[in-house]
Specification:
About 65% of the residues lie in helices and about 0% in strands. With about 160 residues, it is an all-alpha fold. Helix 2 runs antiparallel to helix 4. The chain starts with 6 loop residues before the first helix and ends in a 20-residue tail after the last helix.
Length: about 160
């Protein structure tokens, strides 16, 4: 009997909350370090009441809570974008690629490729005849190569 993959199995709620908490704690630690919460000077200013802004520990708690909530919302919305039945299937092409566009593009590319191949073989044959005629008429230095830059006109040397 086959089991159906459920959305809850893809990302359990405890994992979601734990990852969001880790994001919030990381942002809080970065805030503490950036505001100098571990320095003696800042802590003395906070104790005396001369620190002009929000104390670093209070700011870190605010940032931690804000990032925790933001990460929780963003991760929850991203989980809703995943179809649980699609999770177990292997994908051999881009996920958001349209099948109808693929078949229409293949038909157009096939027709254009066949036409280009026919035009290319005719152009290659005409190019070979032109090259042979140009080599016999070009004044060259004896080794079959012209000294002039490739401008399309023979050199006067």
């Amino acid at each position: 009997m086959t089991e159906k993959t459920r959305r809850r199995d893809l990302f359990r709620p405890l994992q979601l909350v734990g990852l969001s908490l880790l994001c919030g704690l990381f942002a809080g630690v970065v805030t503490l370090i950036a505001t100098g919460a571990f320095t003696d000077k800042v802590m003395r200013m906070v104790d005396k009441g001369t620190y002009g802004a929000i104390p670093p520990w209070n700011l870190a708690f605010i940032v931690t809570g804000g990032i925790f909530i933001a990460a929780l919302l963003i991760l929850s919305i991203l989980i809703l974008a995943v179809d649980p039945s699609d999770f177990t299937k292997p994908h051999d092409r881009p996920v958001l690629y349209d099948d109808a566009a693929e078949s229409a593009d293949a038909a157009v590319a096939g027709a254009a490729g066949a036409a280009a191949a026919a035009d290319g073989s005719a152009a290659a044959a005409a190019g070979a005849e032109t090259t042979a005629a140009d080599e016999s008429a070009d004044p060259s230095n004896g080794d079959g190569h012209d000294d002039a830059p490739a401008s399309g006109t023979p050199s006067a040397s």
